[in-house]
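Because discrete structure vocabularies remain unfamiliar, we reproduce here a specimen of the format, pairing a chain with its fold in token form:
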Amino acid sequence: MTVFLLAGGGTAGHVNPLLATADAIRAREPAATIIVLGTAEGLEARLVPERGYELVTIERVPFPRRLSMSALRFPWRFARAVRQVRALIARREIEVVVGFGGYAAAPAYLAARRAGIPLVVHEANALPGIANRLGSRLTDHTAVTFEGTPLRNAVRTGMPIRSEIARLDRTAGRSVAIAHWGLDSRRPVVLVTGGSTGAARINSTIVNSINEIVAAGWQVIHTVGESRDFVDPHVAGYHPMPYCDRMDLALAAADLVIARSGAATVSELAGLGIPAVFVPYPVGNGEQELNARGSVSAGGAIICADKDFSPEWIRTSLIPLLGDAPRRADMARRAANAGIRDGADRLAAMVLAVATTSRG
């Protein structure tokens, strides 16, 4: 029986691939013990126990980005976190550490190195975070979602996608989705999503353009997030909701998706072969635009900058695409050819191979 420590968390971008990988490992080695290392403040504090895995928490110790009192205390706090993980490894006889980035990952990487046990690092984004840049220097086993991710010894396994999406039968699921949301089975569907907190630019542009989209013969499922500014225009064929708790059905219904280009979203759409319009989040280090480049280069998606996503862009670019079924079908084929649907299985296979090799 192998004991694995899966480290990462903070956001869904770290927690969801961790959980998908945990499920894939357990499917292959049911007797395995899987412990998740995270923080009490991150999303993992709720999602990991809900999925039935043991969660061990350590202090959240962010890397300092400027000189401050917190920065001066960082070396001591970080060293303490490493010692805590090192003690956990010894106490629970952990044999392999698998890291996904986030606050809990970096201490786990150094603890694994000091304990002399194998380390596997998975990077979700095309532009690596600080923790995974560190981790990739400590191991020969680095997995990435996107080709060209600048990490040492990187092997593309794809994104570990949640099983309900990875195993989705869109053909069988479409009729269920149509009934679930009261859609018209004769009209194609645009799925619009900006994430759980919404996307102000996407929301306002869709609302201001909804009459034209519906007039083009389409219907729209729109997750608007927790936006206080959203006002439902009450247009027939437009189905807004704060949050979609059945994203599998939304994707089964979708003939085209308009979304931010987080790593999971890009990977799921490519894996399912759904043509997409990506509107990258304009704040941060530009990782969302980089995430989308592979799908765009393959011809499965197009990018529109957030500042350009306007009713005018809808009229000049989106409406012609909605009216061009052969182009959308070609985009769907190209997206599927570029996508990896079994990323969780591939990463689990890598982790289990590393465990087997380490046992000699």
Notes: The CA atoms of residues 126 and 148 lie 7 Å apart. The chain is about 45% helix and 15% strand. The radius of gyration is 21 Å. Residues 3-161+342-358 form a domain with the Rossmann fold fold (CATH 3.40.50.2000).
